[in-house]
Amino acid sequence: MGAWEDRDNFAARQPERRSDPRYSVDEDSVVLFVGYGTPKQARLVDLSQEGCRLRTVEPVNARARLPVEVFFKVNGVSFRFRGVLQWTDGHNLLGIRFVNTIPQRMVELANVICTMEETEQARAETVNLLVAEQQAPQLAGRETTERANDRNHDLFAGAGLELPEPARPGVHAPLPEARPQAPKAPSHRERRQQSRHEVDTTATILLVNVGSTLRGRILDLSLTGCRIHTDDHFPVGIYTRVETEFRLEGLPFRLGGVIQAIHDRNTVGIRFLDLSERKREQVLELIGEIEQLHAAHPGAAKGPG
């Protein structure tokens, strides 16, 4: 084995030393080893401000520190960077460090990475929110049971009685006589949270990280989110942080949220996040007015504009 092969294998075993955080990506890319053969197809695995990692379609036998050029597109932005092969695993994985990048391209890359960072944060916030919503009924039920046990203990103690012993495993206490109960109708507030209301009014989506806006129309609205059909193709993916602006029933709204679903190239579902109590009550009042309007005039116009 030659000296340069020893060096390359050693470099491939070294941990990454990038000072900037890496973000997972899965996009088509091309890598060209300058002065050596034809471009090779690859997949972009991760990306940072300093470099990237590629997985080539075919195994690559190349030296570390070999000059390269990489081509890829992320979030609709095309990039071409010069770099050096920092390491290789001897098969398909390549670590590339960018070199001699002009400032304008670095700014464009920084904007894309900023969007990816915000997307990761929004994804984490959404997951935490969903987990909290799933755990809330269990925690509420547990607290209700504990409070009921405390009240029973106080009542029995005040009457000079002892609480009945808990049932032993395998021994079942007699069940009380069952009495039929009428099903409990959900409250007005609960129905609002679970239902969507069809509306039709102009709206604007602000892509927080990019600073650009998209115009469209709201198709439906609920307390937790809305669905919007944009005039142009929606350019980014789910978990992108957005702000939604619209006017309905004479009231202006600007609500922060995250892209929760992409139904097609022009239709997205938005989940509202971090609503203040005031904005939450405003949305509730608006939904109440929409319910009353639909009940009084089925098929009536759903919004101005």
Order of helices and strands: HEEEEEEHHEEEEEEH
Task: Output the CATH class name of the largest domain.
Answer: Mainly Beta
Strand order in the largest sheet: 1-2-3-6-5-4
Number of domains: 2
At the third CATH level, what is the topology name of the largest domain?
Thrombin, subunit H
Report how far apart the termini are. Answer: 74 Å
Q: What ranges have pLDDT less than 50 throughout 5 or more consecutive residues?
A: 1-18, 182-193
Secondary structural class: alpha+beta
- The CATH homologous superfamily of the largest domain is termed predicted glycosyltransferase like domains
Question: Can you characterise this structure?
Answer:
Helices cover 30% and strands 34% of the residues. The protein has 305 residues and is of the alpha+beta class. It has 2 domains: 3-101, predicted glycosyltransferase like domains (Thrombin, subunit H); 103-140 and 197-297, predicted glycosyltransferase like domains (Thrombin, subunit H), CATH 2.40.10.220. It has a 6-stranded antiparallel barrel. The protein has a 6-stranded antiparallel beta barrel with strand order 7-8-9-12-11-10. Strand 7 (197-207) and strand 8 form a beta hairpin. The termini are far apart.
